[in-house]
Amino acid sequence: MKEDLLHYIWQFKKFAVKELKTVQGDLVEIITVGQYLQQQGPDFFNAQISIGGQKWAGNVEIHINSSDWYVHHHETDKNYDSVILHVVWEHDVEVLRSNNSELPVLELKKYVDTKLLESYSKLAASKSWIYCEKELNSLNSFVVDNWKERLFFERLERKAKPVLELADATNNDWEAVLFCFLARNFGLNSNGEAFFALAKSVPFSIIRKESHNPEHIEALLFGRAGLLDGDFEENYPKALQAHYAYLKHKYTFDVYHPVPVEFFRHRPDNFPSIRLSQLAMLYNTVQNLFSKIIAAQTPDQIYDVFKTQVSPYWINHYRFDKVSPPKRKPLSVSFINLLIINTIVPFKFAYAKNRGKQNHEELLGLMQALAPEKNTVIDKFRYFNMQVNSAYDSQALLQLKKEYCDNKQCMKCAFGLEIIKN
């Protein structure tokens, strides 16, 4: 028996509610089970229960065994003085309140249908990947669609939180916030934090002033990334060194120790040098980037905004002083899609939320128009016959796997509850 199942049984009254008696022999009538807030303190707040003909209003605490009351030291916690009923699976010891009066205990195992326990045991049995993998293709489509939407917005709320925090720290300088989070995602997983740190280290007012000069903005980004340290043979990196020295003197930058960037194990097109040049050229060639992103509502409109590539030097380079065969290096559609999923949609969501507005339909339409992500988690869901048709689906399922499946939160998952119910 697990406590999350007991919470489910109590919350949805999945037991014989008539003829209930406490272990002390008093009749129990449940008027309301209380609110399941999942916060510190008792499990269910503001319940109304008649015990032995006396109506009580207060809180309900749930444990597997009565003795867990003492294991969790509730007897010394004043938050539990308001408990009117102790609901347990098995009663193994009497529980006393702080005034030494005995707490009424309802032992649930006497009143729960064994079929429910069998359903839960079947769901919780060890599987090759996730508990409900074999039942996924039999789920009600209405339940699937509603739960996916909830999961998508849960994930979006999580992604939007750091955006809102940085907006608050910058007095709602949304252009600066956008620059920082675009930088993070240009860095991908391995260099994201390094790019984010360097973006925050440069006041956006300087980016705005210098963006008209491609060499100046590259010098800023490469210099803050620590990529201009050392001696170079070619003229271009030497020129960037000179530009960076001039800009540091002009703006009197704070001392900054760059987070090292990684080249190892990257495809050349994802080298930090290439991504930094693309980011620099984006700000050099696109005016009013913030306004254009906020206004864009379709992938094609966003693709038009991000039609940029590297500066001329990087057409035949991947690293300083190392010539390579010439190749245009524009932002690919797949890379822009990652920016839309991981930066633009959370940013637009956070910006609307900050202004007290809602743009759910716009964001749903945008994500549903994008191809789903390709990774092992999504491949597994497809293997078990879960439909994944768009980035909206893949984001919802990634949230499901990370926050529910990996943490064994079946009783908080609409899929798990549906399987047990049926």
TrEMBL record:
InterPro entries: DUF2851. It comes from the Bacteria. It holds the Pfam family DUF2851. This is DUF2851 family protein. It comes from Flavobacterium rhizosphaerae.
